[in-house]
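Archive transcription. Copying these from loose printouts into the bound notebook so they stop getting lost. Printout 1 of 2:
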Amino acid sequence: MGKSGVFSACALVALGALSIANHNAQAGEPRSYPTKPIRLVLPYPPGGGVDAVARIMVPKLTETLGQQVIVDNRGGAGGNIAAEIVAKSTPDGYTLFLGFSSVMTVNKGLYANLPFDPVKDFEPIIQLVTSQYVLAVHPSVPARSVAELVKLAKSKPRALNYASSGIGGPLHLAGELLKARAGIDMVHVPYKGGGPAAAAVVIGEAQVIFGSLASTLAYLKAGKLRALAVTGLKRSPLAPDLPTIDEAGYPKYSVTAWHSYVAPSGTPREVVNRIHGAAVGVLRVPEIVKAVNNVGYEVTATTPEQLAQIIRTESETWSKVIKTANIRAQ
């Protein structure tokens, strides 16, 4: 081969390499992700379970991904403001949403003209953690099981009040789901948060509550509330002696609070996989598991497909409950 042939071959190789580099740059080559800080948008202000879970994971997630993960609290409108911000962001993996269960599965049925679709506008990445609620009563209530509570409620319609953290919240919906499944009628009394709701039952303003472990555990230990059951499909390792409502005769009754990572729809699968792998790695660290347990959560670490199914199934359940009970956000 002459000199001109050698130069031509080299030129072709160089040109091919340049073409591949340009293609990868245009596609945002997933293997190079991330190359800049990642914004994690939270649906509520600092403080509370959502913020706690985010901040437990962020330092180790930053270390794993090699780029800073920045927490951005955008509270308001029941989490809808934050969700809309992420839904309308560029789908490149640099804006993520810490999707709380209520925002992802309840709000579509609760709010008119929701500015995003939880199913269509997000790429599910991973359900991180979940937490059950506790069905508890004031000690004066003559019921020591779900069956006895249902029997009491049926014998005295609307005589029992159940407290919640607010209209359309998970504690409210848990009560409405039991009412529908058991055929009972209790009166809903909303309070401004889970803490005030639990305190109201302790002093007898209400008799029943579906409370978080965080807001009820001290009262349960002190004997100021009596726990009857937990609301997940499996017994909680945080309260293993308590049966589930499913066990009590109401199959598939399930109400949990969970947190997830989702990205804008259209985010490349390679990027989704990178974030998923990093999150799973973080959730395997013993110190992270312990910290998550200490704030009342259990690690789940689902696949993207499992999270997608959870969102679809729970959205259908809560839409029916909301419609039946004629609940509207206030």
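Printout 2 of 2:
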Amino acid sequence: MHEVVAVRATIPGMTTTVDPRTVFETSGADLDAARAVFEQAYEASGFLPERTERVFGYRFRTVGDQTMSFRSTRFDARMVGEVDSGDQVSVSWVTDGGGVLDVGRDELGLSPGRPVVFPTGRPYRFELADVRQSVVQLDRTFLERIAAEAYGTEPGTLVFDHTAAPGVEAVRAWNHQVQEASRIVLGNAPVSVLALADTARRTALALLTTFPHRITARQVPLPTGATGRVRSAVEYMHAAAHTPITTTDVAEHVGLSVRGLQQAFQRQIGVAPNALLRGIRLDRVRDELRAGTPTDTTVASVAVRWGFAHLGRFSAAYARRFLEYPRDTLHG
């Protein structure tokens, strides 16, 4: 048996008002179908399911909108694979079964009663077996905006330490907020856009209070359309542009092949990764030339420091980008 339901409800008696929640639910007893469902749900591939002593069956349900959703999973088998947190920050807890997150790296065991935040900003491997799992997912950009408001700072990249266990009181407060939010998100009564948005905001604040994290300031705006691994790659380029990294290093950092990185960049932002990295370094050269003077700075020394060994090609690329030669910037 395999059932799928995907609905967007209209509030009774108010045909012009649409409930913002989307519901998706599927269940069955086919192992291959289950693999396809979970690969699609987590935008991944290569999951490997394997039967255990339990009679196999699965159920997956998600309710929410693009900002926040609640997911529940029953999976009576073993599953291993690799996923990327992408543009979501997720908190999970299990009531039965268990597993390991971030296999082979900063491993974290899943055990009943302990909420954990998924690794962020990079791909990670997992192993799960015979689980009853719940997940709260929040849009990463939304969460970063709430963090900026709460801390009085500019929006930056949130980096969570998934291995750090939250305190007892923090977990108690988190559980309370999840219960309150679930009444809204999972309830049968119609929900307005404003009510769902307020619930998402309260849940975001509870997540920030509960799970240890830091904020990495962004040096420059991200290219329009950059999400998931492309976003992580761009941020890594900015953070490490002063080191001799290549697109091979960038691809490895975000868990892609070089070809996969190139295809993702072209698809999302229409720029090759090596061109973006070169542009970042040209921008850094320009900043140094503007800050320097002809008496203490030379174009050649700055260019070489930022990885431009062939000064003729560097000068031409600089002129194409800034419509002036580097010597003009230095003397300007």
